[in-house]
Design goal:
The chain is mainly beta. The protein is built from 1 helix and 7 strands. Strands 1, 2, 3, 6 and 7 form a 5-stranded antiparallel beta sheet that branches. Strands 4-5 form a two-stranded antiparallel ribbon.
């Protein structure tokens, strides 16, 4: 699946990632001025149970349900480990 990747800073010097299908806007419930575009039109294997290095669980299921997939608060990425 081709996606656009966004990133935002979290407390504790961590990061969260959000992916949406390429060309789709961030759905309104996830719209946040803190999201910064990182990459556009990137291929990811949305069939993976865990999308590394963005630490997103079940990306296909999340996108089908919500229109986007996001890093869990349990898997936030340390800034030094960020892609």
């Amino acid at each position: 699946m081709q996606v656009d990747i966004y990133r935002r800073s979290e407390p504790g010097d961590k990061l969260s990632y959000l992916i949406v299908p390429t060309g789709q806007p961030i759905p309104e419930e996830a719209t946040n001025v803190d999201w910064q575009a990182r990459q556009r039109d990137v291929h990811v294997d949305d069939a993976e149970e865990h999308l590394h290095p963005y630490e997103i669980d079940d990306p296909r299921a999340q996108i089908e349900e919500k229109g986007y997939a996001i890093t869990s608060v349990y898997h936030q990425v340390a800034r030094g480990d960020a892609p």
